[in-house]
């Protein structure tokens, strides 16, 4: 295999991964629109979490049945079910729940900047899981982006007395980032054998016995009391954020290598900031914009740094 071919494979993974990130970028502002705020709540975080997974799970059942009729009978092996469950805990429950809880108390622009931590978290998990060897310079860029995010969180935490601390919402955001990182890598590990589309579909289908009952239990008592915009936002996070976005994201991680493609997530905070302004009317102040741009800038340096990609990952991605 020539180096040129390796570069093409990586670039393809980066572009496909970027498509998934563009889809995911609207998740934060639309989740904020769906849940409202602590003073004016709309859909509960629990309903947004389990309801969106239930809707996407039903769509997944339809997709898998259509694949079955076409002769695509890729059923997970006995050893893969455990990893599917692990992935479900991260992307079906952990990330959306902690994110929804956080957005009750902070603007989506705040959450958007904090998502800059996700590339480092994903890269750390990927490096350990796939035994990859990122260079020192690569880690330096990732750590720099993380320090910028942490500085932003602390700066925004200043209270009337001038004290700095981490809010509970920031703790929820950090838990959301950790959950997503583990879920992303679990899915990337399964993609070569199952395919990107079937990974998220099987994750959602196996979650249905939990997500459907929980969605009914947490559904609003009066559906007409919820604003129409909140329902439209819920529809987006159910169909795009919870389902179609993963089609592109998992495939990109598998093709280009999870450590390197995970750094594409550094553009997500800026895109989320741009979405938040027209969707929510949230102000985009200079401090938030500057931190967002500074974090994003690290991706253009970090993606040029050498990362050791195992031959097995590249070979599997070509199948």
From TrEMBL:
<feature type="transmembrane region" description="Helical">
    <location>
        <begin position="81"/>
        <end position="106"/>
    </location>
</feature>
<feature type="transmembrane region" description="Helical">
    <location>
        <begin position="112"/>
        <end position="130"/>
    </location>
</feature>
<dbReference type="InterPro" id="IPR050638">
    <property type="entry name" value="AA-Vitamin_Transporters"/>
</dbReference>
<dbReference type="InterPro" id="IPR037185">
    <property type="entry name" value="EmrE-like"/>
</dbReference>
<keyword id="KW-0472">Membrane</keyword>
<protein>
    <submittedName>
        <fullName>DMT family transporter</fullName>
    </submittedName>
</protein>
<feature type="transmembrane region" description="Helical">
    <location>
        <begin position="167"/>
        <end position="187"/>
    </location>
</feature>
<dbReference type="Pfam" id="PF00892">
    <property type="entry name" value="EamA"/>
</dbReference>
<feature type="transmembrane region" description="Helical">
    <location>
        <begin position="50"/>
        <end position="69"/>
    </location>
</feature>
<keyword id="KW-0812">Transmembrane</keyword>
<feature type="transmembrane region" description="Helical">
    <location>
        <begin position="137"/>
        <end position="155"/>
    </location>
</feature>
<feature type="transmembrane region" description="Helical">
    <location>
        <begin position="231"/>
        <end position="250"/>
    </location>
</feature>
<feature type="transmembrane region" description="Helical">
    <location>
        <begin position="286"/>
        <end position="302"/>
    </location>
</feature>
<feature type="transmembrane region" description="Helical">
    <location>
        <begin position="12"/>
        <end position="30"/>
    </location>
</feature>
<feature type="domain" description="EamA">
    <location>
        <begin position="12"/>
        <end position="148"/>
    </location>
</feature>
<keyword id="KW-1133">Transmembrane helix</keyword>
<dbReference type="InterPro" id="IPR000620">
    <property type="entry name" value="EamA_dom"/>
</dbReference>
<feature type="domain" description="EamA">
    <location>
        <begin position="169"/>
        <end position="300"/>
    </location>
</feature>
<comment type="similarity">
    <text>Belongs to the EamA transporter family.</text>
</comment>
<feature type="transmembrane region" description="Helical">
    <location>
        <begin position="199"/>
        <end position="219"/>
    </location>
</feature>
């Amino acid at each position: 295999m020539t180096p040129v071919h390796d570069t093409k494979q990586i670039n393809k993974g980066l572009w496909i991964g970027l498509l998934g990130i563009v889809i995911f970028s609207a998740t934060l502002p639309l989740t904020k629109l769906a849940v409202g705020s602590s003073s004016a709540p709309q859909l509960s975080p629990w309903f947004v979490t389990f309801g969106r997974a239930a809707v996407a799970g039903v769509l997944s059942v339809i997709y898998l049945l259509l694949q079955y009729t076409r002769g695509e009978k890729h059923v997970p092996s006995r050893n893969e079910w455990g990893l599917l469950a692990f992935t479900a805990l991260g992307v079906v429950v952990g990330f959306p729940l902690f994110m929804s809880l956080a957005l009750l108390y902070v603007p989506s622009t705040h959450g958007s900047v904090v998502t800059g931590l996700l590339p480092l978290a994903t890269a750390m998990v990927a490096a350990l899981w796939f035994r990859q060897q990122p260079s020192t310079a690569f880690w330096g860029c990732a750590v720099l982006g993380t320090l910028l995010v942490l500085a932003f969180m602390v700066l925004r935490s200043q209270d009337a007395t001038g004290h700095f601390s981490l809010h509970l919402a920031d703790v929820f955001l950090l838990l959301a980032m950790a959950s997503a990182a583990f879920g992303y890598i679990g899915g990337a590990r399964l993609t070569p054998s199952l395919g990107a589309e079937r990974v998220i579909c099987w994750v959602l289908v196996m979650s249905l016995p939990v997500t459907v009952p929980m969605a009914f239990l947490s559904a609003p008592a009066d559906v007409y009391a919820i604003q129409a915009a909140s329902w439209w936002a819920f529809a987006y996070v159910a169909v795009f954020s919870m389902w179609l976005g993963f089609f592109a994201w998992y495939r990109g991680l598998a093709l280009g290598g999870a450590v390197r493609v995970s750094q594409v997530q550094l553009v997500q905070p800026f895109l989320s900031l741009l979405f938040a302004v027209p969707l929510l009317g949230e102000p985009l102040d200079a401090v938030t914009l500057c931190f967002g741009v500074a974090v994003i800038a690290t991706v253009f340096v970090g993606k040029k740094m050498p990362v050791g990609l195992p031959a097995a990952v590249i070979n599997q991605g070509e199948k």
